[in-house]
Design brief:
Layout lengths: L1 H11 L6 H8 L3 H8 L2 H14 L11 H8 L3 H30 L3 H28 L8 H11 L2 H10 L4 H16 L4
Helix pairs in contact: 1-2, 1-4, 2-3, 4-6, 5-6, 6-7, 6-9, 6-10, 7-8, 8-10
Keywords: DNA-binding
InterPro entries: Homeodomain-like_sf (IPR009057), HTH-type_TetR-like_transc_reg (IPR050109), HTH_TetR (IPR001647)
Organism: Streptomyces olivaceiscleroticus
Amino acid sequence: MLEGALRLFIAHGYEGTTIEAIAREAGVAIQTVYFKFGNKQTILKELVDVRVAGDDEPIPTLERQWAREAMGAADVSTQLRHQVEGAREIYARVGDLLEVLRNAALSNEEIATLWERNKQQRLEVQQHFIKAFAEKQPLPSGLTPERAADISYGLLGPELYNLLVSERGWTPQEWADWVHSGLCHHLQCDA
């Protein structure tokens, strides 16, 4: 059901996708979709959670292997490379769906709450990464941890990924290399 919902959300957006269409796409009764998820918002939330994680295991982002490798990297450039590669892999799975979520949030208050929660979680992850960075190398003079996290949050955000990869035709690796270079520049580390 989730894979069918994913295809429909990406093709028709949140508002253009109905529970009936999801049931039809999945080859199940409408009641089955309602019984499993209750409503369309829950389907979208479940899809985002599973696609971001890459599985249905309830493991927080910072406890995932790639994030632990980033935080435990011996030097800051390697840490940033792990962060960027982790984001690239996540956006390969969920970039289009996050765009559906962002667009739906503009006109749907319940979805806006999901989008705000997603943004807050991403910012909190970047704050943890910046803390680990600063333990390896001091931040540049005048750059606060809050501002450093904002820079990381912005450069590693799905909005910029979708703009450059989906709209402008960059490859995911070109995006990753550019973001790594930008982070190294702003945080003053050797690329």
